[in-house]
Design brief:
The structure holds 2 protein chains of 2 kinds.
Chain A (H helix, E strand, L loop, with lengths): L5 E4 L3 E2 L4 E8 L21 E8 L2 E8 L8 E7 L4 E9 L4 E10 L1
Parallel strand pairs in A: 2-8
Antiparallel strand pairs in A: 1-3, 3-6, 4-5, 4-7, 7-8
Chain B lengths: L11 H16 L8 H12 L5 E2 L2 E4 L3 E4 L3 E7 L9 E8 L6 E7 L6 E7 L5 E9 L4 E12 L5
Parallel strand pairs in B: 1-9, 3-9
Antiparallel strand pairs in B: 2-4, 4-7, 5-6, 5-8, 8-9
Classes of the chains: A mainly beta, B alpha+beta.
Chain lengths: 108, 155
Amino acid sequence: MAKIKPRVKVPKKADAGEVITIKALISHPMHTGRAKDKKGELIPRKIINEFRVTFNGQQVFNVMMEPAVSANPFVSFPFKASESGTFDFTWVEDGGKEFTASKEMTVS
Amino acid sequence: MKYNLKLEDISRRKALGLLGGAVAMSAFAGPVLADAAAVSGKINELTGGAGASEGAVTLDIPEIAENGNAVKVGFEVDSPMTDADYVKAVHVLADGNPTPDVASFNFTPANGACGATTRMRLAKTQNITVLAEMSDGSFQQATGKIKVTIGGCGG
């Protein structure tokens, strides 16, 4: 399986009160459990079922995903900048395996 | 399994068996898809039977999707996003996929605005419903149709 690699885009600097857009993508096949492989056998379901974001340790946003979300799930969402801090992004795969990424933002 | 039966070997019973098998095969050929009733059932379940009004949710979806494997779906919900009045959750539902759920987004006042985009799979041409749950317990929804040229369910 291809390497699972998270990618996140957060502006490095923002003005206080500004609503920024954060874009997050993780390369993941999102097997639905319905498709078959070349031998005609069902590929078992394995998807990213949750994506959550914390800012300075506080959860600010999460998405619960179903198999209907495309491969390499992409999410963009707004965030209101008020103070400098760190975003932690976590993707949870079926079975509990977690992938993480983290970004800093400076608010002036 | 070999199919080198001679014509005289095929008894009526065998013929019926083969026919029955063919019917069963065709019935299970495609995935069983959800329908509009499944989506309205889901909305009832989420809203507790209260239903949802329209107006606050704006959809950003394409009219035609050439490839059902990755269809952009975006939405915006008109809300001040303050501690007193914000959007708690947004559910994206599709009525032509094997299951109606696509994704549920949980927002907090820290988001400052309510909106998001993602990409989803669509098995066929269908209606997308976005249901937003407000902090005061009311619901808002919007529905749009996406035409799909090639379905995205694999298999």
